[in-house]
Design a protein that fits this description.
Order of helices and strands: HEEEHEHHEHEHEEHEHE
Strand content: 15-25%
Length: 254
């Protein structure tokens, strides 16, 4: 009976949204607040690419993950759930098409699902029409995986350019559609091979220097999946707070 109870609790923890207020375990990092991002006020955010970023207080962090879903995404989701933390995932459309169950799992846990093109190309090196089609195909694949219906109108109007490589025309097109373009304020450089310990040292050092901001990770990287529990613990011990970003509801603009 004890084993059955433990299994049931684990199932509930895995399948329920990881809101801080709902977290049954004391001593977790939790999600400190939800920030509604208004596309009209914040069309482009992230100081590595743009002059503006999100209005975060000292020691507030937005966790973002690119390039998934992938086999390693499950470990990322589990680490976040253990600390009752919500993040934003910028998904590659062909990966969403291949792993729709993982897309729905991330959504069921309460995470925000943004978009990251269909095939992760250098969009700035393509014609406008080819780049636009790649963006729209990615959105459609993400939406089909999540809701069972392909559409290039995103339910979450958040987009991140692969390699942060945009063009003025593409930025204007996305802004006209009410889609927020996310850059980042700093990142873990986890596209480079390194040990989880080295990645932890690098990202904690950058966090100490920046003190707040949008952080970029990749949920496709095994080293990041292995490092993440220790990073979340570092944040908890050192008084950092996780902010979860969501789109501002359209009804609120009326």
């Amino acid at each position: 009976m004890g084993r059955l109870r433990v299994a049931l609790l684990l199932f509930v923890a895995w399948n329920a949204p990881a809101w801080a207020g709902d977290c049954p375990r004391p001593g977790t990092l939790g999600t400190s607040r939800v920030l509604e991002v208004d596309a009209a006020r914040y069309p482009r955010v992230g100081l590595k690419s743009f002059p503006q970023t999100l209005p975060l207080d000292d020691k507030e962090v937005v966790l973002t993950f690119d390039d998934g879903p992938a086999a390693t995404t499950r470990r990322i989701l589990a680490a976040l759930a253990r600390e009752c933390v919500l993040a934003t995932f910028f998904q590659v459309g062909r990966n969403s098409q291949a792993l729709p169950g993982m897309v729905r799992k991330a959504a069921a846990l309460g995470h925000t699902l943004g978009h990251h093109s269909w095939s992760h190309p250098h969009l700035n090196a393509m014609t406008f029409e080819a780049a636009k089609n790649n963006i729209d195909r990615g959105i459609a694949a993400d939406e089909a995986a999540l809701n069972g219906k392909a559409t290039n109108v995103p339910s979450t109007p958040f987009f991140r350019f692969p390699y942060f490589q945009s063009t003025p025309e593409l930025l204007e097109m996305l802004q006209a559609r009410g889609i927020v373009v996310f850059g980042a304020d700093f990142w873990a450089s986890d596209w480079l091979p390194m040990t989880p310990q080295d990645e932890l040292k690098l990202i904690t050092g950058r966090l100490k220097a920046a003190r707040k901001g949008i952080i970029l990770f990749h949920d496709t990287r095994a080293q990041t999946a292995a490092m993440l529990p220790d990073f979340l613990k570092f944040m908890r011990v050192n008084g950092y707070h996780v902010v979860h970003v969501v789109p501002k509801p359209k009804s609120a603009d009326r």
